[in-house]
């Protein structure tokens, strides 16, 4: 049986994942407005993935006999100074989510909640991929600099 403390932490994290979805949807809208359809599409996919992550928490909480407790979702930022700023904030956000997942794993291990620890391992691996993907795009943006042709090509790639 899962502790109330663990259940509360999982419910809080469900909210974080849904907020991530909302944030990335806002970033997609920002790029749509700039007519950068590739960047917008990439963020729409990220938004869908984050929502799916939230639903994994939703399902696990229910499957283990817990009660899902949804909370208000904060309004995300809607405007950025540059493409690079969007991706730098995305990287910071992914690192924030990674730290939260690590904290959940630590709590599960401390409580000897092996089922929750096992469930969270998928997210540990997923976060490695998420951070690496954003870092790769940042590296490409750094190489491109102010080259509009390079930006066009990256937009098409995404």
Summarize the structure.
The protein has 158 residues and is mainly α.
Distance, first to last CA: 43 Å
Order of helices and strands: HHHHH
**Beta fraction of the residues?**
under 5%
Number of separate strands: 0
Shape: elongated
Mean pLDDT: 97
Question: Main beta sheet: strand number and arrangement?
Answer: none
Computed CA radius of gyration, to the nearest angstrom: 17 Å
- In helices, the fraction of residues equals over 70%
**Low-confidence region ranges:** none
| H/I helix tally | 5
Could you say which structural class the secondary elements and strand pairing correspond to?
A: mainly alpha
Describe what this molecule looks like in 3D.
Helices cover 80% and strands 0% of the residues. The chain is elongated and about 55 Å long. α1 (4-33) runs antiparallel to α2 (37-63) and α1 packs antiparallel against α3. With 158 residues, it is mainly alpha-helical. It contains five helices and no strands.
